[in-house]
Known about the structure:
By secondary structure, the chain is an alpha/beta fold. Helix content is 30%, strand content 19%.
Amino acid sequence: MPAPAPNGPLITRDTISARLREMGVAPGETLLVHSSLSSLGWVNGGAVAVVQGLLDALGPTGTLTVPTHSTDLSDPARWRNPPLPEEWWDDIRSTMPAYDPRITPTLGMGAIPETVRTWPGARRSAHAHTSFAALGPRAAEITEGHAPDCRLGEHSPLARLEQAGARVLLLGVGYGSCTAFHLAEYRVPSPSERIGRPAPGGGWEEATDVSVDSERFDELGHDFERDRPVVRERIGTADVRLFPLADAVSYAERWLPVHRPREEEFSDPRA
């Protein structure tokens, strides 16, 4: 059978940049973009055209940032989809390639972040699980200093983006994908956990970090959008939201302890 005809309008590089400007994206600003290419409809040029449109809207003085996480470089004992036989775990740990920001691919981030990761001039942060990649004049400032024991906290690109006055663009995805809320988890009582990964020089290493969890982020986002200014538009068939990262973090700092208290689960190693 022939493939079905595409739904929705034709989306091009110019469509992306024009709609973003209509939403208020300004040349020179810094954006953290969470995205779904398929949500937009039929895009001429795919992820490349979307990245070009984003860069066009930001201009040469703006900075584009995306999550480029690679959570598969982790302890196989924690894998659930699917779980692996316990007798494999030691071999997997000893042979797993170490994280390399130049070549380690993203996992579950989609085509747009993977395209940014490989874009000429992209800078990528050093965390093996929760790296971010950036393009633009503030890329190094945002991605440098990502500590191995701080996936999404004060020593991660999220805190740098907050300091830079960045805004978050949810391009066809919901608040469950909003990593900014995780920064708030580091500022409220949260459990800790041991995180394993292949060591850069070989072997296996572990670090203690805050346990992050996106449970109820969609509900948090609903309340945030109800109470705080959020620009809402559509690009193609995608719902798009734009808001200051700092607003999202501060709102989550107040919301999480009330609606998702976790302090009873742990003793804080930072105390």
